[in-house]
Specification:
BirA Bifunctional Protein, domain 2, SH3 type barrels, 8-stranded mixed sheet, globular
């Protein structure tokens, strides 16, 4: 694992109770998720809420093995250690909801209601991608033991790969740069608040807020299902995290990540 100079920031820049109170900032690393997993595998004593932030990831990862590309020093790429041992394995998508909502809380405050959660783990502004989430869980018995929450958010990057025409950033939307440390503090505080709601079993509140912010909810769009294009309407998300959709022919389907693809005009 390649690491280039790391240092710990002062704890008092964060208003959160525990998320981000232990913060390691790296100049360069392959993946903050992998770095955190490596620390855990070496039996390092890490407190819940530990955050690993990198100015640049050489091998950042997204869902389905996708590569997360990010300009050096321009964006937020970080991982949070959580220990949601109160969550049954069957409830693990609730953690995804809590994290997505925490990020969404901050983005809505900055950008307005056009900031949405795109199922299952992206954040969007209108039809463009602002960032993504990769949660990797370890399980003990029927419950979660540890969760490494990887987050990538485009902040001050102005130019993107020509093949990545769906990407945008806060800077491109606001036409000004945004302070990365301030944004990290805001997001960590908001994720902590939503995580504590989850821990307090406020699932109805999380479900309601998640549904209200779901990208393309109750809108008719084209989707690719089983290599064919269908017109459908997103109606919600099942407790296990599958996308509930009603096709134009009236058929109801619950789909996982490998079964459906969003189509953009």
């Amino acid at each position: 694992m390649f690491i280039n100079l790391n240092y710990t920031l002062q704890n008092n820049i964060f208003l959160a109770l525990f998320v981000g109170q232990s913060l390691v900032k790296l100049h360069e690393v392959d993946s903050t998720n992998d770095y955190l997993k490596n620390l855990l595998s070496n039996s390092k004593p890490l407190i819940e809420g530990t955050v690993i932030m990198a100015e640049y990831q050489t091998a950042g990862r997204g869902q389905k093995g996708n590569v997360w590309k990010s300009e050096k020093g321009a964006n937020l790429t970080f991982s949070i250690l959580l220990r949601p041992s109160f969550l049954n394995v069957n409830q693990q998508f609730q953690l995804n909801k809590a994290v997505s909502l925490g990020i969404s809380d901050v983005l809505i405050e900055i950008l307005g209601k056009e900031a949405k959660i795109k199922w299952p783990n992206d954040v969007y502004f209108n039809n463009q991608k602002l960032g993504g989430i990769l949660i990797e869980n370890t399980i003990k018995g029927n419950f979660l033991k540890e969760s490494i929450v990887g987050i990538g958010l485009n902040v001050n990057q102005k130019e993107f790969d020509v093949n990545d025409d769906r990407a945008t950033s806060l800077s491109k939307i606001l036409h000004q740069d945004y302070d990365l440390d301030k944004l990290l503090s805001q997001i960590c505080g908001a994720i902590e608040s939503r995580y504590l709601q989850l821990k307090a079993n406020k699932n109805q509140l999380l479900d309601k807020d998640y549904l209200r912010r779901l990208f393309r909810l109750d809108e008719s769009h084209q989707f690719e299902i089983a290599h064919q294009n269908f017109e459908g309407v997103i109606k919600g998300v099942t407790p296990s995290g599958r996308l509930s959709m009603q096709l134009s022919n009236g058929e109801q389907m619950d789909l996982d990540l490998k079964e459906v693809k969003f189509i953009f005009d």
